[in-house]
Amino acid sequence: MSHEGVHPGGAPLSRRAVLGLLAAAAGAVGAAPSRPASAVLTRAIPSTGEPVPVVGLGTWRTFDVGATAAEREPLREVLRAFVALGGRVVDSSPMYGAAESVVGDLGAELGVLPSLFVATKVWTRGRQEGIGQMERSLQRLRSSPLDLMQVHNLLDWRTHLRTLREWKAAGRIRYLGVTHHMAGAHAQLERVMRDEPLDFVQLNYSLVEPEAEQRLLPLARDRGVAVLVNRPYAEGAMFRRARGQPLPPWAAEVGAASWGQLFLRWILAHPAVTCVIPATSQPRHLADNMAAGSAPAPDAAARARIAAHFARL
Q1: 298-312: buried (b, 16+ CB within 10 Å) or exposed (e) per residue?
Q2: Is the confidence at residue 244, as pLDDT, over 80?
């Protein structure tokens, strides 16, 4: 059961560009973890106006590793570069194996936890089971209060939303929301969004899974709900479709230097999207993803051009 797209192999940026970004990231983190080396643009959370960077970091599969230094070192560099390049939003779940613990441990070791906007989920049935799971998540992520707690895949959402409202009122979490990763659940997600006061909704959205733009994204704008986008690469389906195809010569005009950036910039061109959360365990892919958020989003005409070109692949 997948939730976030993972950037596959390839050459998303030139070697010189990657080394430059990562060198700047390492220098910035060494000097001041909260000061980005490259400006990622921000958008406001509608319920409060708080700004968050438009590109975040998912942890599905990628951060589910063991405790050895060899296993964790690539992720340490990913998290180091993420913060130095202006990233804040890190999304996880107890469903993702060791991911919560890895984020918490590495964030503490790097001294970057105070600069992160940490999001996770509750994924169980029953009030007490949910409370117990959320307590463990806060311990693993070393975050109190937690920035965002979400009901994962709407599992027992009525029960958990009641608890989340209590936790928010008590200051244990700052924001609450719900998630799903399948278009087949969008009708249920829409009902919850219409009936419940939410700060965030997390949903799947990409050029090969565009269904959210029919009803959910307009509804999020109307209801003042922030949108996190998972599966931005549809688990690599986007790249498989573009494999062997040259990047269109006009890509630079819309601020994209790679297929991955083109895909992310199409998503970010939708005004209802607050933040997209691609997952990666590779520093060079992290740098590529972050670059997609460093320029103003394409306008409607450019967005249509991207979609039309992709449809011909």
Answers
A1: beeebbebbeebbee
A2: yes
Q: What's this model's pTM, rounded to 2 decimal places?
A: 0.91
52: left (phi over 0), alpha (psi -120 to 50) or beta: beta
CA–CA dist 309, 313 (Å, integer): 7
Give the pLDDT confidence of 124-178 residue by residue, as tens digits.
Answer: 999 999 999 999 999 999 999 999 999 999 999 999 999 999 999 999 999 999 9
Residues 6+ apart with CB under 8 A from 200: 45, 119, 148, 150, 175, 176, 177, 178, 225, 226, 227, 228, 274
The CATH T-level fold of domain 50-311 is TIM Barrel (3.20.20)
pLDDT at 312: 95
Q: State the pLDDT at residue 29.
A: 38
User: Cα–Cα distance between 191 and 178 in angstroms, integer?
Assistant: 12
Is residue 298 pLDDT above 70, yes or no?
yes
Q: Distance (Å, rounded) from C-alpha 311 to C-alpha 257?
A: 19
- C-alpha R_g of the chain: 18
Residue 65 has pLDDT above 60, yes or no: yes
The first and second tokens of residue 65, run together, are 């590793």
Note the pLDDT of residue 23.
52
Q: Which band of pLDDT confidence, cut at 50, 70 and 90, is reported for residue 56? A: very high
Residue 55 neighbours by CB under 8 Å, 6+ apart? 40, 87, 264, 268, 275, 276, 277, 278, 289, 290, 292, 293
pLDDT at 1 over 50: no
Q: At what angle do helices 157-169 and 127-141 cross, to 10 degrees?
A: 50
Strands 89-91 and 57-58 turn out to be: parallel
What are the structure tokens assigned to 304, written together?
A: 């249509």
- Residue pair 298/265 in contact by the 8 Å Cβ criterion: yes
81 and 283 Cβ atoms separated by less than 8 Å: yes
Q: CA-CA distance, 168 to 150, in Å (whole number)?
A: 12
